[in-house]
Amino acid sequence: MRPLSHNELLNFWEWGTHRSGIERGLMLISLSSSYSDRDKLLGLSIGERDGRLIRLRQMLLGDMLMNVANCPTCNEIVEWEMNINHFQIPDFPTEIKEQTYELEIDDFSIQYRLPNTKDLLTAIHENQESEEILKNCVLVAMNRDNQTINYSELPDTIWDNLSKQMDQQDPLANIQFSLTCPSCQHHWQSTFDIMSYLWTEIDSWARRMLQEVCILARAYHWSEKEILGMSAKRRQMYLELIS
Ligand SMILES: [Zn+2]
């Protein structure tokens, strides 16, 4: 993975303005990994997809995540911050490959894969429950006599353990923060969605950057390309000289 240049990031922002969160997320992964096979990007497990986006955020804007949430009880604004290193993000392989796993319980065994973006899109489109997503991830189901069976014949213990095992294998698929309201002491779990978080940051970065380009181009008659090619420190220095 590699960070994007200022020019690439602005092109992405322009493209992403009228795209969904999922489309933006997959495009960022594609640009930072030079990987364009859409089917494989859709097949990334949710945790690997979001982990790659968190890693890219770290490359672009540093370690600290800062955000606000509203207390669900009294609506007070609660600020939180988190160091990305806390997530223990693994080094992702250059090649995107779907992995299969096994689970054996009570003489039954299954081979399965982790839920991915394609599963989520299908679930939204067909109004599926989370149990349906789990069933879609089972590739092969076998009984105690090693005969292939329909997943409907699997005992409940398989499904309960499959869900728990997936949570452990793909921990970044569901990132929750514990927050406490300083006003009413209410304690709750807040879900962190890297795709919307990162888009908000890129959107405000792009607007600020274009304002700076406008001010510097007016004052010094430099091209957009020349200004975007400068370091933030040098751009800041020229802006200070104008004021
Ligand atoms: Zn509160």
Q: Give a count of the beta strands, DSSP E runs of length 2 or more.
A: 7
Portion of residues in beta strands equals 15-25%
Radius of gyration: 22 Å
Could you say which small molecules are bound to this protein?
zinc ion
- Tell me, briefly, the overall form: elongated
Poorly predicted residue ranges = none
Question: What number of structural domains do the residues give?
Answer: 2
Write the layout of secondary structure elements.
Blueprint: H1 6-16, H2 21-33, H3 38-42, H4 46-61, E1 64-70, E2 77-83, E3 101-105, E4 108-112, H5 117-126, H6 130-137, E5 138-142, H7 156-169, E6 176-180, E7 187-191, H8 194-220, H9 224-228, H10 232-242
Antiparallel strand pairs: 1-2, 3-4, 4-5, 6-7
This protein binds zinc ion.
